């Protein structure tokens, strides 16, 4: 029952009116974004789905081999065989394409923003509450305005995923740079290094393990959001999960779910391994150049 002593604040109507306004005002811009993102996604999807399954599986396993070693490569290859065996390979590659596009764009935004926040306290104070808001907003809510603006298909899923997964990339980048030992930075300054060189050769390499942890979190959040984006017709494994839910199809739901788990494990292990190989020694040597 609504308390009559408190007047209703039509916040939702204001947001709806704002979304309608920007949709009508910037329709040309949104159409351009939709065309570009749709084109990039379709290109990547074609690259991943056109070759025979075993070709793509071997390439991805080779990536795991370079990142970690033969154990991860063999485990990844076995997982990909399972995905193909339950007839989820095409959907899994569509999902991987969505995750890669959304993650790349999210990182292009998040890492520079995190660097800026680490180097400027005023920026950090402004960014933090925005990130708090982005991380606490229910994931489903992001799908509503993107559908209004971009209609259905993979593009609204990509946009919603970018917004949902952006925050950890910013936070971990800022944290990693702020945690770099100030004495190492001062040593770089003492040897005449410019601020740009200190950032490139000292702070970023030393912060790379933390930044890669943020990359890992961005990928995991992107994967979870891409599955939810199946509700707006983004395709991939999310569409199979939604179909299984609508039909109460336990078999389809489990098969799509196990494919998501295998993809998540592969991406998690590869990005974690890359983070462990950060060139810290090179950064320390840069202070003596």
Explain the overall architecture.
- With 289 residues, the protein is an all-alpha fold.
- The chain is built from 13 helices and no strands.
- The termini are far apart.
How are the secondary structure elements laid out?
Blueprint (H helix, E strand, L loop, with lengths): L10 H15 L1 H23 L3 H15 L2 H16 L3 H31 L1 H16 L2 H12 L3 H25 L3 H9 L4 H34 L8 H11 L2 H27 L3 H7 L3
Features:
289 residues, globular
Low-confidence stretches: 280-289
Please tell me what the overall shape is. globular
Number of strands: 0
Mean of residue pLDDT?
83
Helical residue percent? over 70%
Compute the number of helices.
13
| SSE string, helices as H and strands as E | HHHHHHHHHHHHH
Summary of the model, kept short:
The protein has 289 residues and is mainly α. 83% of the residues lie in helices and 0% in strands.
